[in-house]
Amino acid sequence: MNVPGPIRLTAVAGALALGLVTLTACGGTSDAADRKHDGKLGVVASFYPMQFLAERIGGGHVSVETLTKPGVEPHDLELKPRQIGRLTDADVVLYLKGVQPAVDDAIEMAGVAHTVDAATLTTLEEHGASAGDGHAHEDGGSGHDDHAGHDDHAGHSHGGGEEAGHEGHDHGSAAGAADPHIWLDPVKYAEVAEGVGAVFAKADPAHAADYRKNTDTLVKQLGALDTEFKDGLKNTATRTFITTHSAFGYLAERYGLEQEGVAGIDPEADPSPARVKQLQKIAREDKVSTVFFETLASDRTAKTLAHDTGLRTDVLDPLEGITDQSKGDDYFQVMRANLAALKTALGAR
Fold this sequence. Notes:
Blueprint: H1 5-25, E1 41-45, H2 48-58, E2 62-66, H3 81-87, E3 92-95, H4 101-110, E4 114-117, H5 186-203, H6 208-232, E5 240-243, H7 249-254, E6 258-261, H8 273-286, E7 290-293, H9 300-309, E8 312-315, H10 331-346
Parallel strand pairs: 1-2, 1-3, 3-4, 5-6, 5-7, 7-8
């Protein structure tokens, strides 16, 4: 549920004050040296993609706490007072503005010196202004907007920086709103990693060399993953995939694919009859075989659509959290599982 901004901020301010009281009662302190966790850099990450970067780049020099526990749908996260209070005890706060409104408000109130908005470390774009936009099938055409798969993203509206379309958590569902799902593009995720590494080095100069080394290693691994996707999706029977969660705009664009969202950003929303009809036509004309759903949401919509269109279902994980149901234990394993699922669905040769 979207709560008006002023009401949210008032609630957060009260929770922040309560959290600070709780920490003080438990022996918390604002002294910078004492805020280190067992001598390590204390990092608070908003949700899994940020947590993964912090752990890989920080290595043994950081103590990472995530605000979004495994299995919790990150967009609807409501913070407890103690979690909000913990923000003020952090050396570094790492988040992605626009994904979690409650987190955005709390971080704004906390005022931690080393606060990193990952959205400012790469270029944001608009994706999926409405379900099915950019597809010519409904008008009798047979093509898609010819914009996917180019590294320079020519022709797109870019919105870099903190002010780029981050009101609420629209996920690019409305005109002018930037898509925050940058971690699903290995190239953009690598750009974010480089920025995070620089912040860690500044916050903890004594271990700067290790942070730089770990960052370089991660960036190379992400480069290798990018190559795997390019090679694996180079030759396919179709370039179109259908997903209940329109989170894969950057991934689709990077590798020359076309994402068709069932009903916009909500993975559990029921598509309109008109959209079902449109998707049936798209599936038929583009030889689509699969409706993808995710592990943190119900598969009801995907199964209903698949039944109505004669398609099968499979998981395409937006990697907003790792659970026992995830097809892997970390970012790289799940991304490779996504690649395998896409290759099967698209008929890779």
